[in-house]
Amino acid sequence: MSCSHIRTTDRKYPLRQPADWIVKFPRYMLELPEDVNEVSITYIGLQPRHEESLARASHTDLHRHVTTAAQRHLAAKIDNWIGRASTSLAPALWEKLYVETGYDVPDTEMYILYWADKDVARRAIRDLDIKKLHNSLPSQDQQNIGIWHESFKVPKSRLETVYSGNDYQPGIASLPGAKQVSHAFTGYWGAARDRIPSSADDSFEPEASLPPPDFAKDIKRRDICGSNNTSMIHIRSGQYWERCEENEREAYERTLEPVLREGMAYLENNAAETGDCGLRFSRNLTTNRLLQDEENAKEFYSAVVDSAVDVRYGSDTTSAGASSTIETSNTGHGQDPNIIPNPQRPRRETCSSGFFRSLKDLENWAAKHPTHHKIFHGAHAHSTKFGKTTFKMRTWHEVAALKPGEVQFEYVNCQPWTGLLGFVEI
Q1: Which stretch is the leader sequence (predicted)?
Q2: Which of 21, 130, 178, 389 has fewest C-beta within 10 Å?
Q3: Integer angstrom CA distances of residue 54 from 221, 265, 357
Q4: Would 396 be classed as within a structural domain?
Q5: Which domain holds residue 38?
Q6: pLDDT tens, 368-424?
Q7: 50-67 burial, b for 16+ CB within 10 Å, e for fewer?
Q8: How many domains, in total, are found in the chain?
């Protein structure tokens, strides 16, 4: 996935890069080790269903993250599975986030797991068994939570990445042996397609059309499993501003982040036209990148098993990485004793992740719509203001071009607008 993997001659489909192109802003792409041929990625979500008719959130509605007792109970099991129960199947890296808005319920807790071995990834998800996890809850509580997973594998020839700096390694960039290298395939419309090695011979056109989104399906208490019957695009696009000085942090939060949320809201509200298939906007909680120190990891997994007693489950846990800071008081959430706020300052790291109907749909929004133009030019203006080589805010994305059957999903007792549910026949 380095520049050497991008064919510049003898292509069926020519590069989109203009002649004599000069890069205006330094950018980096991922170079995976030679022995890594593909990457497997799984998203797992724990969705609160304490409200039967929950209104969908707006991209401007910010609130303190809360979790239910059922979420904490299942999160403890997943944390334990990642850390101890299945060490031979454990992901090479993982991240934990919560959904703020998009095609899910706000406060859904979400894991993103990465493997460099597809067979290990497949066995791991089978070993975790989310339906069995759901059934482990007391029967009266199973209706109050949904659990889902979306999994896919992609060869590195159909994977592209871009990073605004090489001093921050999110997502796939944290795989052992991965390197972020500078390149010239950036800054022009069509650059993302050029960065996909297979674009030399593949236009990535879908084999069939997806149905219009249907968010009125009756799937209460149902277990929906399936796979994609046509090619799709997956994108994860992130923002990281923990290292910013106060003036740069304020500039991002007041100027650039509102523009980003406006673009996500447009995609969500116009799914049939834009090709948005289940994008979620989420905020990071923790990752094994933050737990590399042996003592921190030991402390974390000890907290998973030995956390404070929960009134319903007896031996429960809180959100990963935050168990020592959870309060037991209520703050405006209906005085439900099973919903506990996290008093920590929200981490300054967010991402959008989900699927698009096609690469052409994603490109059309990027190249033609005012909402993306504001994001694109706003990011360039930000890095210019704070120095092309000295600004601290980091943006990035990873895009996977997926063939039929490469996406596997399962939704147990989930709201009908969750992820891909509204876009597949059931």
Answers
A1: none
A2: 389
A3: 16, 18, 26
A4: yes
A5: 29-423
A6: 999 999 999 999 999 999 998 899 999 999 999 999 999 999 999 999 989 999 988
A7: beeeeebbebeeeeebbb
A8: 1
